[in-house]
Amino acid sequence: MKLYDRAVLAVSGCKPENLMLLFTRLVLAGVFWRSGRTKVEEGSWLSISDSTYFLFQEEYSGVPLPSEFAALAATMAEHLFPVLLVLGLFTRLSVLALLGMTAVIQIFVYPDAWWPVHSLWVALALMLIIRGGGTIALDSPVARASRR
Predict the structure, then answer these.
(1) Where are the domains of the chain?
(2) What is the pLDDT of residues 81-125, one digit of tens each?
C-alpha cells in the first residue's frame, strides 16, 4: 500500500496538477480553434466564408440571433477565447464564454450531441472554472502583480 500512497502523492502534487490544467486548456482551446478555422476563407485569418453564413442561415437557424451576427460572433469567439486559453489569460472568463457557446450549440443546434461530445467539453470547462489556469498561465503573474 505504501507504493500506491506514494504514487497518489506524486500525481496529486502541484506540478502534475499544473501540467494537467495546461493540457486541459490546450485540449479545450483546440476544439474551438479548429471549429473557428472551418468558418473562415482558406488562407485568411478572419475572413468569414460564404459557407459559414449559409450554415448559420440554414442548419444553425434555431439560434435566436440574426444569422449574420451569430456567424460573426461565433467565428470571433472561436478565435479569441482559444488563444486566451492557450496563454492562460482570463482563463475563467474565456471558459465561461466557451461554456456559453456550448450551451447554445447544445440547446439550439445539436440537441442530440450531449453524450459524448458536449458533456466532455463541459467537464473540461468546469475543471478550469473551478481550478483556474494553474501556474503555467499568464493569469498567475497577473494575479500576483495585482495583489501588490
Answers:
(1) 17-147
(2) 999 999 999 999 999 999 999 999 999 999 999 999 999 999 999
| Cα separation, 122 vs 124, whole angstroms | 5
Instruction: Read off the amino acid at residue 143.
Output: A
Q: Which residue is it, cell 496538477?
A: 17
Give the separation between CA 73 and CA 88, rounded to whole angstroms.
21
CA 130, 133, 138, 143 dihedral sign is positive
The length of the chain is: 148
| Contact of 133 with 25, CB cutoff 8 Å | yes
- Cα 35 to Cα 81: distance, rounded to the nearest angstrom: 12
Distance from CA of residue 69 to its chain's centroid? 20
The predicted model gives 76-83 an average pLDDT of: 98
Burial class of 58 by CB neighbour count within 10 A (0 to 12, 13 to 18, 19+):
exposed
Which has the closest alpha carbon to 129: 28, 31, 32, 15? 28
Helices (H) and strands (E) counted in the chain, each on its own, are: 7, 0
Dist CA 27 CA 52 (whole Å): 24
